[in-house]
Amino acid sequence: MGRPTIGDVASAAGVTKATVSHAFSGKRPISPATKARIVAAAEELNWVPSSLARALATRRANAIGIVLARDPEILASDAFFPAFIAGVEAALAPREVALVLQVASTRAGEERAYRAMAQGRADGVVVLDLHAADWRVPFLEELGLPAVLLGAYEDASTFSCVRTDDAAPVRELVDHLLAQGHTRIAHVSGPMGYVHSRVRASAYLERTGSDELLRQGDFTARTGRDLTAELLDLPERPTAIVYANDTMAIAGLSYARSRGLRIPEDLAVAGFDDDHLSAHLSPPLTSVSTDPRRRGEVAAEQLLLDISGRPPRSITLDCTRLRLRDSTGASTEPPHPRSNA
Amino acid sequence: MGRPTIGDVASAAGVTKATVSHAFSGKRPISPATKARIVAAAEELNWVPSSLARALATRRANAIGIVLARDPEILASDAFFPAFIAGVEAALAPREVALVLQVASTRAGEERAYRAMAQGRADGVVVLDLHAADWRVPFLEELGLPAVLLGAYEDASTFSCVRTDDAAPVRELVDHLLAQGHTRIAHVSGPMGYVHSRVRASAYLERTGSDELLRQGDFTARTGRDLTAELLDLPERPTAIVYANDTMAIAGLSYARSRGLRIPEDLAVAGFDDDHLSAHLSPPLTSVSTDPRRRGEVAAEQLLLDISGRPPRSITLDCTRLRLRDSTGASTEPPHPRSNA
DNA sequence: TCTCGAAAGTAAACCGGTTTGACAATGAGG
DNA sequence: CCTCATTGTCAAACCGGTTTACTTTCGAGA
User: Which residues on chain A are in Cβ contact (under 8 Å) with B75?
Assistant: First the structure.
């Protein structure tokens, strides 16, 4: 015989299924004596209600979902993700809500995954890596699946939204570099499809006023290296490079060094995301910490509220901080910009 | 009205639920004409079977679970985890199996989580971070939940097991250091409760023959730093330190530098796990790559086999590789020029 | 003494699928 | 022409819970 069911407990306690159910949910008064018998029987049989059956009956999965559109490869080398998940789990664990993860590489697969979530796998989803006019927003609306969008999204009336001000620290960073006398400041962005890439890039453009030294990368070490090479090969090379994440920054820094440039004297370098190792590099890497853990926690928390029926709301977190470190010469002399030999 | 059900499709197509079910599962022959009507109706109504109801009826969740005993904080700064998950997902995605994640900080919470998995959340679990005599093994046996154990486990008759040889690259590394003339080689291990920590430490002991310079850390940057301080304060300090992971190694390296030691001239340093940034540090960090992605893929693959009824088996992967880099003074990669040389 | 309401429980419907047993219609074999 | 196997479909039971409607009992208030 398989796992004990509520029926087994009921007959062991000499009552019906309904009584057992009520005894545990407390939705109906149950006499102390009966309740004690039921609890004892459940204990004895080692019974725990099947979350599946419960979910079917109550239309509540007690789980929230995340569908990852990212390539597993990128996922593997991303500092944001594990910290974010940790935050989500921190919010979920005390409530015994599970997290369902599914990756999908094609749009069709993504749709299937979201449909599966809607059909009972999850009560709501957290949506990451928003695009400018993201198809998932209307899609999820139609599906009627509660969702929390991470990052800025213009028309977020139907869904809650957890935002951060990514632009401010970038402006602050560029201003800092300008104040140090840098005139040729480059930016290696992420894919412009992403809202967050675009926000960072436009903060950069707002300050520098030109996209001459703007290059589009894809967050991998590879493009960090290649685009750095491209920038350093310019007739008048930049004296500072701001990267859209730490992985690209570190790859770029490492490449610049291999060409004999000193950091930060010959080239100032800054990243974004503040990987936990960045402070330990030499030179330590200037970056922007974004507290992904907190964002995960807040997003999950809000999603649970949305699921319980509260109206969606937009939360703006103040959790981006510029971390000035040696790679931008924060604590050294202003650099002497030179052009290529 | 909510999502369409199989009943809606059935009446739309003028048949019964059973016929619809058979049309899709193919378990009974259905005439082409009827099948076409059913498919059309399903298409029309945008119906997709509820995974919940299906799971209840078939006792198959179509999901596998991972219960993380780690503190969310450690999870956040761990290079192993995201890559492992990526591998698991790579195996799961094409089969439309979901991954259910749950963290639990207490033993009771862990047990609850595994019970919940067994009751329908998941068809099997992957068990990480094995301890020497892990309570989870008999527990899961009793629960009757298929499982794949990651890492060495002596008595793995009932469960499949995915192993790697962590000892070989450590031996190789220590031999390399000995060959370079180092005589005082230290080791900062992980918590000795973990099988993998113990394996690495005993490979170290096997070669050095003494535990005088062995210190037990906990994989965090903090203990990496503190234990390095302790080792460097010894009257006769070590000339090389082997850390059980890269995070501790980088923290240690950084600390040693702050005390004015040159790496690798004054102190050779090596890590374990080969964080994706380690090759980009300066000096690049010698480490051991362990291919967590592949391990995740193989573990998930095997778990699916176990679930489908195949007998458990033990797989040993050959995927640990020593990556010699500048931090131990002998590099297969081109060195970076020293600044201000 | 009679009535009414709350308390404690029961029986059955329901959630949305799958699976099994029954049965009519069809066609092949003897 | 009769039998038997096969095909296609239906009706109902089932998975393991929750929830609703209904019954019985008991004590308090009039």
Answer: 82, 85-86, 89
Cis preceding-peptide flag for A283 (omega within 30 of 0) = yes
**CA-based nearest residue to A256, from B339, B83, B301:** B339
Q: How many CB pairs under 8 A join A and B?
A: 189
Domains of chain B: 6-49 (no CATH), 63-165+292-319 (3.40.50.2300), 167-289+323-328 (3.40.50.2300)
Each residue of B168-177: pLDDT tens digit?
A: 999 999 999 9
The mean per-residue pLDDT over the stretch A311-315 comes to 92
B116 touches chain A (CB under 8 A): yes
Secondary structure class of A150 (helix, strand, coil): strand
CA–chain centroid gap for A81, Å, is 6
Structure confidence at residue B233 as a pLDDT band (50, 70, 90): very high
Residue-wise DSSP of B58-74:
HT--SEEEEEE-S-HHH
Does A112 contact B103 at a Cβ distance shorter than 8 Å? no
CB less than 7 Å from strand C: which protein residues? A 14-19, 22, 28-31, 33-35, 53, 56-57, 59; B 2-7, 17-18, 20-22, 24-25, 27-28, 47, 49-50, 52-54, 56-58
Lowest mean pLDDT among A248-257, A327-336, B136-145: A327-336
Separation of CA B59 and C1' D13 in angstroms? 16
